[in-house]
Amino acid sequence: MEPDPDRCCFDEWAAGNAKRARRRGIADGITRDLLKAVGRPRLADRTVLDLGCGTGDLALGAIGWGAARATGVDLGAGAIDQARALARERGVADRSTFSVGDGAKVPLEPHDVVLLNRVLCCYPDVDALLRNSLSAATSIYAFTAPPSAGIAGTFARAETRLSNAWFRMRRKKFRGFRAYVHDLEAVDRRVREAGFSPVVEGRRRFVWHLAVYERST
User: Fold this and answer.
1) Which end of the chain is more exposed for a tag (fewer CB within 10 A), N or C?
2) Which distant-in-sequence residues (6+ apart) come within 8 Å of 163 by Cβ?
3) Does residue 89 lie in a domain region?
């Protein structure tokens, strides 16, 4: 069965994230970690593209940290509705745009900063996603993903196997959705080959690898 985002779990997860975002400002710790790693100086007066934006928490957070505008793209129509609602509530609807689409396929306008927070692990093959997203990044490219090496990588693969077993058991709800652990060394090579150099790399909250790249001059 092919994954069906319109009938799967993304919208339900986005609704939960939206509730946390309304309580906390930033829904999840790893989202805040990514914003901190990119940093206010790299966001100030920049345009930001958040692929796999979910409830728009990261995109709206970037505006709060000084970005001029933010664009979010996500597979879930319900998630995009949540993102637009949050933008209105925070008074930044005129500085944000959210649309339904697959970040690996939709045409992307150039943005100063491109962010992929917990998105690589949702794709069975990240080649198209990397190619499309890297072509849109003019200055900064950053992502978080499950680690693939060392003890943390072993843990991530074990956790992913357990999660996928649960998704299979709840097939009616998750509609074929699976999570993946990708070779981050290969991802790093792709990003460097596109003309970017790492400025921040490291483990966050044990279960996430975070990397920020800046276009080489």
Assistant:
1) C
2) 179
3) yes
Going by C-alpha positions, the residue among 198, 197, 200 that lies closest to residue 217 is: 197
CATH code, 88? 3.40.50.150
CA torsion, points 170, 161, 74, 84, in degrees to nearest 10? Answer: 70
Residue with tokens 């944000």: 96
Q: Domain range spanning residue 53? A: 10-215
Report the share of the chain in percent with pLDDT over 70. 95
Report in angstroms the alpha-carbon separations of 101 from 52, 69, 210. Answer: 9, 19, 24
Q: What is the mean pLDDT of the chain?
A: 91
Domain presence at residue 171 = yes
Domains held by the chain: number: 1
> How many Å is the maximal CA-CA distance in the chain?
50
Q: Is residue 1 one of the residues assigned to a domain?
A: no
pTM for this entry: 0.91
Q: Are 49 and 103 in contact (CB under 8 A)?
A: no
